[in-house]
């Protein structure tokens, strides 16, 4: 799948393809601000170019960030994003690895992810959520800003229609839309309610969805 991603253009495409960009990423950042201490240790899974980490740092300036992604090219762009001295000091590590590999052993105040976990199978998602729970500090928070599957075929068709129409309204070209649709063939989305249930079974408390716009959801749970 890596050959259909362009790390250098990723941020601009996100702005158009995630039509609810500011609320989507902003909600995740607000949750870190509200539920964590002033200097939280944050693990960003599937961090990409650092969009979510940057949103968190803007809301929580003393956050200590650990970025993990399967693509070294994406993390190069993330490193560039945090190149000034103040932001650079906030980035504690950049790790290249798959989400299906064992996570870095440490304890975190928050483990977050955006538009990454939906690429995993259901069994892989459940395994990852259990690993996340184990690595969180007591009262730590897991936040997933991701795409979710519709509960019915008709609902899923609605999600897809709204997504494409709003992306085009924001300036996505036919070529950009086609590339996005090609990438979506790799998606393995799961419904929101199913994932909330998984989190509760694992032991997360206060499990809830904090933002929803059709296929885009931000949900979280507390250890």
Explain how this protein is built.
A 7-stranded mixed sheet has the order 3-2-1-4-5-7-6, sandwiched between helices. 44% of the residues lie in helices and 23% in strands. The chain has 223 residues and is of the alpha/beta class. It has a single domain (19-149, 188-222), classed as Rossmann fold, CATH 3.40.50.
Task: Sum this structure up briefly.
The chain is α/β, with parallel strands linked by helices.
Indicate the CATH topology.
Rossmann fold
Q: Considering DSSP H and I runs of 4 or more, what fraction of the residues is helical?
A: 40-55%
* Strand and helix order: HHEHEHHEEHEHHHEE
CATH architecture, by name, is: 3-Layer(aba) Sandwich
Tally of extended strands? 7
What best-fitting shape do the alpha-carbon axes yield? Answer: globular
In whole angstroms, how far apart are the ends? 33 Å
Q: How many helices?
A: 9
The CATH homologous superfamily is named Vaccinia Virus protein VP39
As laid out across the biggest beta sheet, the strand order is 3-2-1-4-5-7-6
